[in-house]
Amino acid sequence: MRPGKLYTSLAKALSSATKPRDLHKVHSLLITSGIDQSVFISGKLITKYAQFRDPHASLSTFHRVSPTTNVYQWNTIIRAMTHNGLYNDALGLYTQMKILNIQPDRYTFPSVINCCAGLLNFETGRLVHDHVMEMGFASDLYIGNSFIDMFSRFGDLGNSRNVFDEMPRRDVVSWNSLISGYSSNGYWEEALEMFHQSRVSGMVPDAFMVLSVLPACGGLVAVEEGQMVHGLVEKIGIKADVVVNNGLLSMYFKFGNLTSCHLVFDEMAFRDTVTWNTVICGYSHSGLYEESIKLFFEMLYKFNPDMLTTTSVLLACSHVGDLKLGRDIHDFMMRNGYQCDTTASNILINMYSKCGHSLAARAVFDLMKCRDLVSWNSLIHGYIQNERFEEAIDFLKTMKMELKPDFVTYMALLSMSTQLMNILHAKELHCDIIKTGYDSTLAVGNALVDVYAKCGKLEDSLNQFENMKTRDIVTWNTIIAACLRCKDCETGFRMTSQMRMEGMLPDVATLLGTLPMCSLLAAKRQGKEIHGCILKLGFELDVPIGNALIEMYSKCGSLKNSVLVFKHMKTKDVVTWTAMISAYGMYGEGREALKAFEEMDTAGIVPDHIVFVAILYACSHSGLVKEGQLCFDQMKKKYNIEPRIEHYACVVDLLSRSGLLAEAEDFILSMPLKPDASIWGALLSACRASGDINFAERVSERIVELKSYDPGYYVLASNVYASLGKWDQVRTIRKSLKDRGLRKTPGYSWVEIRNKIYTFGTGDRFFEQYEDVNKLLETFSDLMAREGYVANLKCALHDVEEDEKRDTLCGHSERLAIAFGLLNTKPGTPLQILKNLRVCGDCHTVTKYISKIVQREILVRDANRFHLFKDGKCSCGDHW
DNA sequence: CTAGGGTTAG
């Protein structure tokens, strides 16, 4: 073969080599033929090796060519090293080249610039920029594109933009580099804006452009734009591109649009590991942990999980507490060496902590070679979540020796104060936080508002709130929740209106804080307003919102509206059914409650222990003894739920309310749990109605022995002794209460008239219209006496003379509220009264009489339930 | 194109 022909055929073989083996073969042939050192051939070889990810072969080929004086060869080797990420080596070669006095040309620079970008070497990057300008390459398209990318990676979008603006000619890469630069640095608006400009300037987008703009749509939750880009994907024919589809999936997850995710995923003809990771991770972040785990197992048929797969599914494991799967995945990670990755190990720490396994979390931590702040924070927070407070404090000391805590550390510590409800601990931390300056971090400020409220210090919570310079929706929600927790609804409502005045839109959490305040106050008008707001904001399909609405309406006296909300709800969870069953219970609709319970069972909702409290309570308030007992039995036998003390209390209540005192006592004596004050208290409240005073005294003794911290039970016992005239015992009980710093909850009632709430305490005398109210109550007394009413003095709680007792009875807060309400409303209007404690027997009787005398409906909500008084009767049928 | 620790509501 002639040398010329050999050269041509070998050059051809070199170009068409598709496997490293072929390349090596051609290379040896070239060497034996002695033509491997020609400029063109050696350059081809260097590039080819680089494409096959063998930069060392590229380099040795380069070194065989000597002396290397040709700029083309230098450009080739620099490009080869850059292509394989060996930026330092590439820059070293660039320096050598300059030392040898070989002038770089315009083909040299894109690689050199890429190296600076990859190394985040700002200094060299800027020097190269100046150099390029001096050499007059400013208008080169490729160099310009490289600079846009370099400055983007530096986060210097200003210079990226300058380069872009100065370019005399731009191609799609220029646009993509800039858009992707904006996008990856979180400048989403700018990314979208440039995308629009590229469209206006007639640029035809490609897959890269779509991929640059998708994160921006996702980040901004720009739904319309996202859909437009999705449309574009179909139009420009990149619908089959896996990477583009992965980008679409990721965007739709950020929109929270799981339907579209499903669609995209189902239509994908090719899926790769990233696809699976994206959906597994996406479902986890959307709270669909089971779905995420299911997809993981589905994926295993086709792909081996990589590090991202394992870490994504671990997130789901930690949420559902699947320690078994978590461990299996940990094993798998160990076999693949993934645990060497700091992030992966951090996720493991988190998983073990969330699954309640602090020891395993610690073991992961101890084995880590390289720990970061997140590792420390994860473990410390894990200790706190698992109530290992001492270990957390010890660990914090160790941590402080190695590195400085950041705001997340303080958040974890604040959650410790919250759990312990330790105000001193919280205040100490607050001082530390001020010293470190993290008090200006919004999340920390919010956590402080929360911790004070949870320690019961609304004052401090409000102070912290006022001191905050910036507030976000969470701040507002936290302070509203704080007011709710401390039952200061007035301040709570003031906060909601202030929030609205400052232009902050409520979200689901806001409304979930506000609705229970309406429930507490029976503020139906506000409640309805909020309902309107919910419809306007489109939250009506949110399950917790529906649940809160059911409760609000039921507590505001409108069972009808509760039922309406309930019927309109598309998804119902166990809380929904519980809310509805409790609502029926409060209105004495035991049969309806039982029916709802059956429907719930049919709907396949698994009952929890709380539903059983609601259903037992409903039976008890409707006198459905047999049905209630049946439910109690089913609870154990059919649903395998072990009854708790509150369920036993409900049964005691159920039996004793219906006068089955002996049965109730037998039941108590046979129960497997130690009866506490709530059990005996339930029995005692019922004895009071039955009038079996000796029985009551026996029960009272039990209660006093228990030394409960709830003053309510003492008051019950004290009443029994008072009615027996045993004043010594009464005094002993009172002293015992006082010594332990317990106080009887004062009774009060309130009534809303023309949007204003009037509150009355027992025996209040100093309010406007007191005279009129008193006169009206006296008139009622006379009229009632004529009908045969005798005051039941057992309900008076104090050690006083008979006459005075009668006075106190007349002064019970609910009577004051009723009389006041009657005086200030038109005849015939229904009245709605609220009381924080249970209505006493005498007031219950009196209210029946009043409803008949004045021919009005009087709705009274006491601590437990509703009583609708109408024409001398009460809806509770005297079961309360 | 895919991953980690943190605040409200539950």
The whole-angstrom Rg is: 38 Å
Overall mean pLDDT stands at: 88
Shape: elongated
* Low-pLDDT segments: 797-803
* Largest β sheet strand count, sense and barrel closure: 6 strands, mixed
Strand arrangement, major sheet: 2-1-3-4-5-6
- Helicity, as a percent range: 55-70%
Question: What's the N-to-C terminus distance?
Answer: 112 Å
Number of helices: 48
Structural class of the helices, strands and pairings?
A: mainly alpha
Number of strands: 6
Q: In terms of quaternary structure, what is this? A: single chain
Percent of residues in beta strands = under 5%
Keywords: Repeat
Pfam family, one: E_motif
PPR repeats: 70-104, 171-205, 272-302, 372-402, 472-506, 573-607
GO molecular function: RNA binding; zinc ion binding
